[in-house]
Amino acid sequence: MSEVEERVALTPERLAKVQEIIKRYPAGQQKSALLPILHLVQEQFGWVSAASMDMVAELLDIQPVEVYEVTTFYTMFHLEPVGKHVIEYCRTGPCCNMGGEGVYDHLKNRLGIKEKETTADGVFTLKEVECLAACGWGPCFQIREKFYLHLTNDKVDEIIDELRN
Amino acid sequence: MAEITKILTEHIDKPGIETFKVYRENGGYNAVEKALKEMTSDAIVEEVKKAGVRGRGGAGFPMGMKWSFLAKPEGVPRYLVCNADESEPGTFKDHYLMKSIPHLLIEGMIVSSFALGANKGFIYVRGELMYVIRILENAIEEAKAAGFLGKNILGTGYDLELVVQPGGGAYICGEETALLESLEGKRGNPRNKPPFPAVKGLYQCPTVVNNVESIANTPWIVMNGGDKYASFGVGRSTGTKLISASGHINKPGVYEIPLGISVREFMESDEYCGGIRHGHQLKALVAGGSSVPILPAHLVYETAEGNERLMTYESLSDGGFASGTMLGSGGFIVMDETTCIVRNTWNFSRFYAHESCGQCSPCREGTGWMTKVLERIENGKGSMSDIDLLVDVAKKIEGNTICPLGDAAAWPVASAIRHFRDEFEWHITNPTEATKPGAIYRGEPILA
Amino acid sequence: MEENKVELVTVTIDGHQVEVEAGTTIMQAARKIGPEVAPPAMCYYKPLEGTGGKCRACLVKVAQGSTRDPRPMPKLIASCITQVQDGMVIENFTSPEVIEARKGVVEFLLINHPLDCPVCDQAGECHLQDFSFNHGVGTTRYEEERRTFEKEDLGDKIQLHMTRCILCYRCVKTADQITDKRVHGVMNRGDHAEISTYIEKAIDNDFSGNMIDVCPVGALTDKTYRFKNRVWFSKPYDAHRDCDKCCGKVHLWYRGEEVIRVTGRKNMWGEVEDFICNTCRFDKKESSDWTIEGPTKVSRHSVISANKYRADLISKPEFALKVAESQYKQINDDRPFLKELPEIKKSEDYQGLMKQNKDYFRK
After folding, report:
1. Do B246 and A94 touch (CB under 8 A)?
2. Tens digit of pLDDT for each residue in A85-138?
3. Of B87, B161, B236, B418, which has the highest C-beta tally within 10 A?
4. pLDDT at A41
5. Is the same domain home to C121 and C105?
6. Cβ contacts of B208 within 8 Å, gap of 6 or more
7. Is the dihedral of CA B424, B430, B435, B440 positive or negative?
8. Between the CA of residue B40 and those of A103, B36, B222, B397, C151, what are the distances in Å?
């Protein structure tokens, strides 16, 4: 049960941001702040734990289950600990038709992990995602907010080397 | 047709256009001045109606008509919500527009909100585009500092707050009622309609939901008039359209075209796609985002009746589902002869199964079922009866679901089998050959 | 029209005309005519606000929109959430299109259902059984691996058997509207969507038991009743008691002299008339706790009064299992239940159940 887990807290800056976000919506509609706040949580902790979801429920004065329902619906929230860099690669048609599958196979071989896995050193996690609205610039992946476009095997190697160092 | 004009992208390549200063120097925010100081809200709605601009998110519903449905009960706030959840595979125009020229959307939001009598507007951007969200938030701050947003805009007494809301990773939130649910902090489950958002939308208040590109058209319409806008295009396909071109072409990218140029011109001219890459042959085209019916090469440049196929809502849908498709969101996905249609169909089907919200039974169960059958065929384990099974399952999903995701999942499967049945059969009858790496069926497509 | 007078509209459903208040749904108008035209409902539940529209079992064809605008509607529509218009003409059982679509819905709901009716406590009062029997076909075209979930206890009184769930959302609405705090909901999405508490939590409040009553299938069952009986061997009585938490009006389900189960009273559509508290449901199982009003009127179509599915076999012991087994063979099914069957047959619960069957028929 979540009650016995350790308490988690957002940084004071993020807590101030939370208050600012809640004020964006009409009175009584603070639940609208849920997705923006969950992004803040993930930004701070790297993932969204059950304890942090309970904290968000408290911040918004809603039931914890209302948070669980949402985090399990949207694919961006990592519900388990992840590596330092989560590589979210697009597996949808337009990217695959441009050779995406080959590039992603290379990526997996290079890291020695499969989708949903994290490298032993904790640096990379691979996550397969659907279309990232970058179809003309594919194959592509995203690490946090950054898009990596027109991927080739060589480019993947460069990116991995750069992020490892 | 009038000479080619860029309505949305004229200034898009100017250095610094993402800043308020450069945008303003290029005539930006003039529409806000004109709308708020010289026009009434009704007059703006009238111009948008005259322009005949149709919803650019994919449905193609006339924007002015949608605006005129907005209920206006006394004392109840109204909302304008911009749908920037762009997630339809093959579509990346809104992404491009927002990151390149964010103030165009902000300006459009201001004139549209004024026209609708809304004092609060939301831009719901898919969460993956967090960097675009920061660009938009920055643009809003700049506009606010210049007096174009906030309280008493330009001294006219009109107040407007804009909020950029991030999604969390869900294609379904591009459906307008799912988007509203998501904006209320819930799962993106589409609502049953009626009531429509125009009557009960965000927080149960009257709401208009419009696509990024639709809203971005409004400053130009305010400045130049609806009639001028309608002078571009053909028939009921007025104005220009952003086309996201991807796939096996020489020049993938986002292009603004006047509606009415031919598909051949768009595909082959150097101004646009620049032809098929490596001198390859065209095999198939998905003209309006992954959900529209796929067209085999022989129906791309000409309709079944032999008329030249144009980039318009009407011409692309000429022939109905038997031999036509749809303009949709303008996601133009080109496939050359190296494409395996079965694999592509399975891929799109998997997308819709992955993105189904799971609320209604035909979509929840049917999309997953189709995907599994297609995966089996692709892996050389299909049987002939699977093809008819797919057609039947698609038929039982289509039209029977809460929202259009069911149709969007059914159409690519049904149309791929309609036009490329021989390729499916080849996979089933030649499993060893078909599952070799890079194996592609080279037979002639079925003539409709 | 006079003020304050309720506006009445006339609609035609499968050739039957009925006059109802404006704002009535097609479903309610059809129910007013009677069960012969009422569309099936798997998710819609009148006592719970905001239910309906999800299962698509009640799709009907609108052949004429209204007198004012007689155009037909282009798509089949969900009758449970669509309001009637004056002069509307609706085709339900008379429309081949509706019948075909409904066949599809049955198939969709069953492809991932375990079909473990022989050991499911809901059998006999299961809406999915009725729906499949009335609207489905006897075979399956589904060859893929089926979705399964682990059974989960939601506290000591309720068991969640998610594999059987059809995601009607009724239990979620019940928790929202009847209880003071909802701790379960729908997690994940698409065909992975499931009812869950996410982190294991007991559902602990005075009205949680109503989730069992509203569940159309055997996904939420009463643990105190588990494997105790087959519904057709018990006899319901209307009874009441003074309760400080609820109306205290219930059905007592008797086997012989013993009260084996207490449920809310349901109307002919299977909807609870008044929600009851957990004390009445779980803790009052002596006849002396109750004032007995008399035997509950049971519809002659109900399996409780006569086996509606296979009347020809009911006189033989173990009939349900035999029927099920023979059906499994016909469709060469690989559902887990079949694999587990030998184990299940050895279990104490199962032996008890079979003994009950035999005892019952020996009488």
Report:
1. yes
2. 999 999 999 999 999 999 999 999 999 999 999 999 999 999 999 999 999 999
3. B87
4. 97
5. no
6. B66, B67, B70, B78, B79, B80, B81, B112, B116, B118, B197, B198, B201
7. negative
8. 55, 7, 11, 45, 62
Number of domains in chain C: 2
Q: Which positions in chain A touch B166 (Cβ < 8 Å)? A: 35-36, 39
Nearest CA in chain A to C183: A65
Rounded Cα gap, residues C301 and C294, in angstroms: 20
Same structural domain, C217 and C124: yes
In terms of domains, do C223 and C173 share one? yes
Q: pLDDT class for B444, splitting at 50, 70, 90? A: low
How does residue A149 score in pLDDT terms, banded at 50, 70 and 90?
Answer: very high
Out of C204, C227, C250, a domain closes at C227
Q: Which residue reads 């319409």 in tokens?
A: B221
State whether residue C78 sits within 8 Å of chain B by CB: yes
| Interface confidence (ipTM) of the complex | 0.95
Domain-located, residue C16: yes
- Tell how far CA C328 is from the center of its chain: 23
Residue C93 covered by a domain:
yes
Domains of chain A with CATH codes: 3-73 (1.10.10), 85-164 (3.40.30.10)
How does pLDDT run across B101-154, given as a tens digit for each residue? Answer: 999 999 999 999 999 999 999 999 999 999 999 999 999 999 999 999 999 999
Same domain, C130 and C56: no
Collapsed DSSP state (helix, strand, coil) of residue B326: coil
CA B232 – CA B210 distance, rounded (Å): 21
DSSP characters for B213-225?
Answer: HHHHTHHHHHHH-
For position C207, which CATH number holds?
A: 3.30.70.20
Claim to verify: residue C134 and residue C220 sit in the same structural domain: yes
Contacts of C189 in chain A (CB under 8 A): 72-73
Structural domain containing residue C56: 8-109
Name the residue among A2, A65, A73 with its Cβ closest to that of C182.
Answer: A65
Average pLDDT over residues B294-316: 97
Note whether A93 contacts B89, CB cutoff 8 Å.
yes
Under 8 Å CB-to-CB from B49, ≥6 apart: which residues? Answer: B62, B64, B65, B67, B68, B226
Residue B88's alpha-carbon distances to B72, B282, C140, in angstroms, are 32, 22, 33
Residue C314 lies in a domain: no
Residues 226-285 in B contacting A (C-alpha not used; CB under 8 Å):
244-248, 252-254
Neighbours of chain A (3+ CB pairs under 8 A): B, C
Report if residue C46 sits inside a domain: yes
Same domain, C125 and C196: yes
Domain edge (last residue) among C227, C242, C266 = C227
Q: Is the dihedral of CA C305, C308, C312, C316 positive or negative?
A: negative
Same domain, C104 and C116: no
